[in-house]
């Protein structure tokens, strides 16, 4: 596992476009967070919402592309088939590739938020709870989409197909999903509203992190009076633990499928 992790990390961290994203993310995060420096600590404001939306927009895209294209490239070039012949368990290989990918992207996210924190300090702002919370949840979001990306990279025949699948998944979860949910909420009976709202959170990791952030900041009143009882539950300890459990499922299921595919590939390698 350690060898696979080190290999994956070294290969991904050398990516020029990943470095480019790190610089871009750091610059955008710094600009957004510096503008919120004099706002109340831990409050969900327009500026903090902008930082959250920035992370929800860019992090899933980069995680999907970085993970899927790398694995698809290894598969297309034949290196993955060679690795599968080594005396290493598929579980260790799966976890090694996943952790190597995570460490690479976590480093990028940490650099972005580190730069944002420096910009906040330079501008005389107050380091708020939201900055740390946003960083932690962005790490979780990165971990989820990297797990999905590994599976996409394995099932794709080549890099181009991996690119297409990744862009489709990103567009569905980030761009179109919200409109689909809003449409359904407008046509279903009112007694189904809470159920559909909760289901929409479970089925989309982007919405999971968005709602999780709002609930963790005790700002669930933004969801309106119709969801008041649900909002109070989401802010409670049981609600937060439920969010954690859902995030873990989003990570475990794709990795389980990756391990199954690896076992099948190892059998024929």
Main traits of this protein?
single chain; 269 residues; globular; mainly alpha
Write the layout of secondary structure elements.
Blueprint: H1 2-13, H2 16-34, H3 46-76, H4 79-84, H5 90-122, H6 129-155, H7 159-187, H8 193-202, H9 205-216, H10 228-235, H11 237-268
Helix pairs in contact: 1-5, 2-3, 2-5, 3-6, 3-7, 3-9, 5-6, 5-11, 6-7, 6-9, 6-11, 9-11
GO molecular function, one term: ABC-type transporter activity
Pfam families: ABC2_membrane_2
Protein name: ABC-type transport system involved in multi-copper enzyme maturation, permease component
- Tell me the count of domains: 1
Number of helices: 11
Helix content percent band: over 70%
CA(first)-CA(last) distance:
19 Å
| Coarse morphology | globular
Q: Order of SSEs, N→C?
A: HHHHHHHHHHH
Could you give the count of β-strands? 0
**What is the mean predicted local confidence, pLDDT?**
83
Radius of gyration: 20 Å
Proportion in β-strands: under 5%
Structural class from helices and strands? mainly alpha
Major pleated sheet = none
As residue ranges, the low-confidence spans are none
């Amino acid at each position: 596992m350690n060898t696979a992790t080190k290999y994956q990390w070294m290969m991904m961290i050398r990516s020029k476009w990943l470095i480019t994203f790190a610089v871009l993310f750091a610059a955008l995060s710094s600009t957004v967070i510096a503008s919120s420096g004099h706002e109340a600590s831990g409050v969900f404001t327009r500026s903090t919402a902008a930082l959250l939306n920035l992370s929800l927009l860019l992090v899933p895209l980069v995680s999907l592309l970085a993970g899927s294209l790398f694995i698809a490239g290894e598969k297309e070039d034949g290196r993955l088939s060679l690795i599968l012949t080594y005396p290493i368990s598929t579980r260790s290989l799966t976890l090694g590739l996943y952790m190597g990918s995570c460490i690479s992207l976590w480093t990028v996210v940490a650099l972005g938020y580190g730069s944002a924190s420096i910009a906040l300090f330079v501008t005389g702002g107050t380091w708020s709870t939201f900055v740390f919370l946003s960083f932690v949840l962005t790490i979780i979001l990165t971990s989820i989409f990297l797990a999905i990306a590994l599976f996409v990279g394995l099932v794709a025949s080549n890099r181009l197909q991996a690119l297409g699948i990744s862009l489709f998944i990103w567009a569905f979860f980030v761009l179109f999903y919200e409109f689909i949910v809003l449409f359904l909420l407008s046509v279903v009976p009112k007694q189904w509203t809470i159920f559909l709202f909760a289901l929409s959170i479970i089925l989309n990791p982007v919405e999971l992190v968005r709602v999780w952030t709002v609930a963790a900041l005790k700002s669930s009143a933004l969801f309106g009076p119709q969801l008041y009882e649900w909002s109070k539950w989401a802010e409670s300890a049981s609600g937060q633990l439920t969010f954690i459990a859902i995030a873990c499922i989003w990570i475990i299921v794709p990795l389980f499928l990756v391990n199954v595919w690896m076992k099948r590939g190892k059998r024929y390698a």
